[in-house]
Specification:
Order of helices and strands: EHEHHEHEEEHEH
Shape: globular
CATH superfamily: Flavodoxin domain
Number of strands: 7
Number of domains: 1
Strand content: 15-25%
Helix content: 25-40%
Bound molecules: flavin mononucleotide
CATH class: Alpha Beta
Strand order of the largest sheet: 2-1-3-6-7
Largest sheet: 5 strands, parallel
Distance between the termini: 26 Å
Number of helices: 6
Mean pLDDT: 96
CATH architecture: 3-Layer(aba) Sandwich
Radius of gyration: 18 Å
Low-confidence stretches: none
Amino acid sequence: MTANTHPVLLRIDASAQSNAKSISKQLAERYQRHWLKTHSHGEVVHHDLADMTLPYVDESFIEAMYTPKDKRTGEQQQKLALSDALVAELKRADALLISTPMYNFAVPASLKSYIDLITRAGETFRYGEKGVEGLLSIKQTVVIMASGGDYTQEPASAMNHATPYLKTILGFNGLHEVRFIDAAGMNMGDAVHAKNLQQAQQQIDALFA
Ligand SMILES: Cc1cc2nc3c(=O)[nH]c(=O)nc-3n(C[C@H](O)[C@H](O)[C@H](O)COP(=O)(O)O)c2cc1C
């Protein structure tokens, strides 16, 4: 649960392209504009992962992560500082918006790095007698994904490893109710592009209608 005096939207953008070119970022802007209109005094915490160059998980990160909190050296605390800060943002958020392209049938490496940093035993999930328990409790989670091809129907949907992965990892961390909005077929010619982009825009608008 959050103890904010005002609602907080955490927005994570994963496209390597700038706002001017990125379809997923433009759709995220649209969502954010609506959100700010409907949440007076709302605060947006925004990370453009293209600007962050997040570190990969390495051996010292793993060692620090599995050292009990009260036994961590200063160096280990430092190693986990970014991960701790990103997890704290998620715990403070009332709404989570992830905007991402599909890259090579999966999510961009920047988004994978972000997920590797925020998925933390004892912080965002824990194992109990009944199995895994997700510990995040954000009220609304939305994923906006742009892709060149269209994988919304079978049999092409089997090639989309991004959406099932995001569903699994967000659920694992406690976020079971996720709304996915696809801007699919963005490279399939002007007519498909225009139709599917408008559909994604309408789906975003409908979330706030
Ligand atoms: C490195 C790279 C890999 C891509 N891989 C795929 C892919 O596997 N499937 C697909 O449908 N589109 C793929 N695309 C196309 C993008 O998903 C599409 O252009 C999308 O609009 C990019 O999102 P953005 O406009 O928010 O940057 C790829 C684009 C790039 C740059």
